[in-house]
From TrEMBL:
<protein>
    <submittedName>
        <fullName>Uncharacterized protein</fullName>
    </submittedName>
</protein>
Length: 477
């Protein structure tokens, strides 16, 4: 195969009205594409964890207030809706998942390289602009990766798959604060800023290499026709309604806005919380405590994934989100080791909420899945709203008392967890997907060993190409 033939074989254009076998992948068949996409979850976990550490670092080096430092979160998460409802969603619907992955990685790399001159110029505004481009890239990745993990493989295990993949997001958030504690807070300001530059150089190079890996990899595309088939097979049939009547989806997106805002606010001001309630601590030790808290977060995802093997995911979501509310309340008025320990527990229970809301919110959307994923990912914009509100409260009343702001948003997010457990219109589609056997049995046993196409699909394709009505012999294409 020549170079041009290879390039043509890597076409990124996918017809959404054509069914593939992607909606019926077995566990074994889904391992490679899920593993490749899971690398993306680590990337934005690392980026997000780095941002929480930089939040405190810029307060120190640029002498800015807590509220203004939240501009990083505002730029980062504010870019998500532009991607998930705009350019990334357009690419996803008109080209496919692989094209969207490559586009998101390209933006991520561009933003990382633009960050370098901004850091050299000590320009907080310039760095926020670079972070907005990074956020737009990561928003593109999340627009595609979350639904891809959810639908790539047996529907029964959607929540488990996305929680395991998102656990690697948690691992990234553990590593970033540890790195930050050693390269940002243990050097003088000039050296620390230079270290930040090298971190973004490494990120930029890595993501461009990863984009090339996606270009040369063969992963199954999942079309609207595949998702309509999956919804039909599970008898959820929620996609029969027009998109604007998918009320469950919009409720899930609203819950995602509230939950994500609360989660980001707590992580953004965790270092400030420790510094103010642990008088002996310094910024480096507080960053390491943040890493420990993110470790609890990652551990919670693995534990939650295990729990979902035995308990319906909707019940796990209700229990974990309720626990977030129960444990953050006392942290508002309790200081010292007890207050910090309570936040550790909150991060543990936060763990499964984001990916489980994604998976449950997309249940039964069928042909609306790609558009719907954009709305749920747009809910991440809560991370641009709640941290600044928390920062204003922290500047005026202290970081501990400011935790009342994420508490309020947790309560609002709980409305979705209650609805998906007790409102039949929410509960029934979720349960229909949890009990289906799609992907659990080898429904394409008659796959052609050379081409990977079933007899039925081979008949259809030959019929389209040759306009004949005779079917080929079994096992031939």
């Amino acid at each position: 195969m020549g170079f041009m033939d290879f390039v043509r074989s890597r076409s990124l254009k996918v017809k959404d009205n054509k069914r593939t076998k992607a909606a019926e992948l077995t566990l074994r068949e889904s391992i490679y594409p899920i593993a490749l996409v899971t690398v993306l979850f680590f990337l934005w976990g690392f980026s997000y964890g780095l941002l929480d550490t930089l939040n405190k670092h810029f307060q120190n080096t640029l002498n800015i207030t807590k509220a203004r430092s939240a501009g990083l979160q505002g730029a980062y998460f504010g870019a998500y809706p532009l991607a998930s409802l705009g350019h990334a969603n357009w690419i996803l619907r008109h080209y496919g998942y692989r094209a969207t992955f490559m586009w998101g990685l390209f933006l991520y790399g561009v933003g990382a390289f633009i960050a370098i001159p901004s850091i050299k110029a000590h320009s907080f505004g310039g760095f926020c602009a670079a972070i907005a481009i990074v956020g737009s890239g990561l928003g593109s990745l999340e627009t595609a990766a979350n639904p891809y993990i959810t639908v790539c493989g047996p529907p029964k295990y959607s929540e488990i798959r996305i929680n395991i993949s998102q656990a690697f997001n948690g691992i990234g958030t553990v590593i970033a604060p540890v790195l930050g504690s050693y390269v940002f807070f243990t050097f003088d300001d000039a050296t620390a800023l230079e270290n930040v530059q090298w971190v973004y150089v490494a990120i930029g190079i890595f993501v461009f290499l990863l984009a090339f890996a996606f270009f040369i990899s063969t992963i199954p595309e999942i079309t609207d026709a595949d998702m309509a088939f999956q919804a039909s097979e599970t008898h959820a049939n929620a996609d029969d309604k027009p998109f604007w009547k998918q009320y469950r989806l919009f409720h899930a997106a609203g819950a995602q806005f509230c939950y994500t805002g609360a989660q980001i606010a707590i992580a953004s001001y965790f270092i400030n919380y420790v510094r103010e309630t642990q008088t002996w601590s310094d910024d480096a030790s507080a960053a390491r405590f943040l890493s420990g808290a993110q470790g609890a977060f990652a551990g919670g995802r693995f534990f939650g994934s295990f729990l979902m093997n035995y308990v319906r995911p909707r019940w796990v979501l209700l229990a974990f989100l309720s626990a977030c509310i129960v444990f953050i309340g006392p942290s508002i008025t309790t200081d010292g080791w007890t207050g910090m320990s309570l936040l550790y527990v909150v991060l543990f229970f936060e763990s499964i909420c984001f990916p489980t809301i994604v998976a449950l919110g997309m249940r039964g959307l069928g042909k609306h899945t790609k558009r719907g994923s954009g709305w749920i990912v747009a809910g991440v914009a809560g991370g641009a709203v709640v941290p600044p509100l928390t920062g204003v409260a922290a500047d005026n009343h202290g970081t501990a008392k400011a935790m009342v702001v994420p508490l309020v948003f947790f309560v609002a997010a709980l409305s979705y967890a209650v609805a998906v457990n007790f409102v039949p219109a929410y509960r029934n589609p979720a349960d229909a997907f949890s009990t289906t056997d799609v992907g659990l049995t080898d429904r394409h046993d008659d796959m052609d060993e050379e081409k990977g196409i079933s007899d039925k699909m081979a008949d259809e394709r030959l019929g389209e190409a040759e306009h004949v009505n005779t079917a080929p012999e079994k096992g031939t294409v």
